[in-house]
C-alpha cells in the first residue's frame, strides 16, 4: 500500500508562484507513474500534469502548459509541481496520485491518492 502526503499549498497573489511537494511511502516509488490533479468547488477533479516512472516523459493540461512544471526525485520518493504565473482560476485543492502504469493522464487509471492541499490565488 502506498501513502501520499501533499504539502506546499497556500495563498498567493495572481502572477506569483508556489511549489507543491508530494512525499510517498509504503511502496517502491520508482515503479509508479505520478500525477497531479485539482478540484475547484462544484467541479469535477481534473488532470493537471503527469510524469513517467523514469521522469523522462511529462504531460500537461492545456490550461497550465508553459506555467507549471512537474518533476520527481526518486531517491527522495517525492514528486513536485512548480506553479508559476498563477491565475485566480488555478484556485483549487491539488491532489497527488500514483499509478501502476508507466504514465497516465486519466483519473481512473490512478491507484493511490493523497488528501490534497489547498491553493488559493487572489486577484
Describe the protein:
- The protein has strands at residues 3-7, 10-13, 18-25, 33-39, 46-51, 58-60, 68-73, 78-83, 92-99, 112-113, 117-122.
- It contains no helices and 11 strands.
- The strands form 2 sheets. Strands 2, 4, 5, 6, 9, 10 and 11 form a 7-stranded mixed beta sheet that branches. A 4-stranded antiparallel beta sheet has the order 1-3-8-7, with no helix packed on it.
- It is mostly beta strands and 123 residues long.
Give the SSE layout.
Elements: E1 3-7, E2 10-13, E3 18-25, E4 33-39, E5 46-51, E6 58-60, E7 68-73, E8 78-83, E9 92-99, E10 112-113, E11 117-122
Parallel strand pairs: 2-11
Antiparallel strand pairs: 1-3, 3-8, 4-5, 4-9, 5-6, 7-8, 9-10, 9-11
Q: How many strand units?
A: 11
Distance linking N and C termini: 40 Å
What shape does the CA trace take? Answer: globular
Q: What is the arithmetic mean of pLDDT? A: 95
Report the uncertain regions: none
* SSE class: mainly beta
The quaternary state of the protein chains shown equals: single chain
Report the radius of gyration as a whole number of Å: 13 Å
Largest sheet: 7 strands, mixed
Per DSSP, the total helix count is: 0
Percent of residues in helices: under 10%
Bin the strand percentage: over 45%
Order of helices and strands: EEEEEEEEEEE
